[in-house]
Design a protein that fits this description.
By secondary structure, the protein is an alpha+beta fold. The protein has 3 helices and 4 strands.
Length: 71
Amino acid sequence: MKKFRISIHLLFVDFKSAYDSNDREKKYVAMNELNIPQNLIRLVRIMSNMHSQIKIQSKLLAPFIIHMGVR
């Protein structure tokens, strides 16, 4: 009878740390330092603009800009 060895690898990803606290300005600086073309950085900036609103019962509050995290 043959014996088999099984390797087990575990990976834990803290999605809150990875996504919720992503500072966009630092991301743009890093992209610039990596010599990513300015037109691509500009496109990422445009796509990163996020606004949100909160509705409490039937009242919709004023929109606000979300500065951190990813879409």
